[in-house]
Specification:
Blueprint: E1 3-5, E2 12-14, E3 18-19, H1 32-44, E4 49-51, H2 60-71, E5 77-82, H3 96-110, E6 115-121, H4 131-142, E7 146-152, H5 156-162, E8 168-174, H6 186-192, E9 196-200, H7 223-226, H8 244-255, H9 271-277, H10 284-293, E10 300-301, H11 308-316, H12 325-343
Parallel strand pairs: 3-4, 4-5, 5-6, 6-7, 7-8, 8-9, 9-10
Antiparallel strand pairs: 1-2
Helix pairs in contact: 1-2, 1-11, 8-12
Bound molecules: NADP nicotinamide-adenine-dinucleotide phosphate.
Amino acid sequence: MKFRELGRTGWKVSEISFGAWAIGGAWGDVDDRESLAALHAALDGGVNFFDTADVYGDGRSERLLAKLKKERKEKFYITTKAGRRLPKQTPEGYSRENLTMWIDRSLRNLETDTIDLLQLHCPHPKVYYRPEVFGILDDLVKAGKLRYYGVSVEKVEEALKAIEFPGVQSVQIIFNIFRQRPAKLFFKEAQRRQVGILARVPLASGLLSGKMTRARKFAKDDHRNFNRHGEAFDRGETFAGVDFETGLRAVEALKALVPVAATPPSPKPKDSDATRASQPPMTLAQLALRWILEFPAVTCAIPGAKRPAQVAENIAASDLKPLSKDTMKQIDALYDTQIRPLVHQYW
Ligand SMILES: NC(=O)c1ccc[n+]([C@@H]2O[C@H](COP(=O)([O-])OP(=O)(O)OC[C@H]3O[C@@H](n4cnc5c(N)ncnc54)[C@H](OP(=O)(O)O)[C@@H]3O)[C@@H](O)[C@H]2O)c1
């Protein structure tokens, strides 16, 4: 596992970290024993940074992380989020009283006195025009309830506005092969201000693992069933905003770019075959994660996983060689032709 600096915190965090939404809820059935095994597998593989939220399973995810802390000796960081307990997103909802109440609840769930990194959880966009909200967060840092704070955003424009506040250490944003716009302007600005970037939904909700087919059925309480059109929250959070059928077609094309084990030369090799065989073999999930790691502005990717085997596969991406320039170019071309019109100007 390789590590990268997170903002100005001085922390070195695992470049493949752990997204703990799925082990909380909204992804079909979860079994706490298996979730805990997945968390242990993450620590075993060198992960030292876990992303959760007060609303994931209404605190279930935070409580599992508290349990992990009791069961292990090594130091790791937990970042949680606040804001989604509001029944309806309003800028006024981000009051001192509410923020303190949500944070106190997370402190209890996490069984700690101080939250390592608190992120506003995709707040109403007008929150970025209310400096007083960031003043309240500064006060909570001074009071010792938070070590640092950052934001999780839906759109590039929100990210650009958020990093104008000097206390913001990190921005969490959707970034993956199907969501490339953050890399254009935002990454440069974040690097210039030494703000960390947490790349969320790195596998486009599992689509980019390449293991899904048209026949895949999602449970009623899995957002990949109930939020495909943004019925419950921003539609961009489900398959990164790409419709399932289009996503599956693009994934088939991506599979042809995954480096494979070298095979004996065929009588008439194609150029692309030579490129694929010249790199170490990997899975599509690993290619998707490697693609993210090719951007030095990114602090870490935070793939979600419910099972230890998924965790192990995802973690292994850190130790693979960088993707070739040719593969990166072909991924860009695929994005431009099949995905860009569906997502690029929406977020
Ligand atoms: N607003 C926000 O702040 C926000 C929103 C979304 C996510 N997040 C954070 O970002 C994290 C990551 O995003 P995400 O969980 O939504 O999406 P993701 O990481 O793109 O996809 C996670 C899902 O992909 C599947 N998967 C993972 N590894 C796999 C592998 N190696 N092979 C096959 N399938 C695999 C699993 O689902 P199945 O096995 O069930 O298919 C897993 O639950 C979240 O856990 C959360 O911490 C934050």
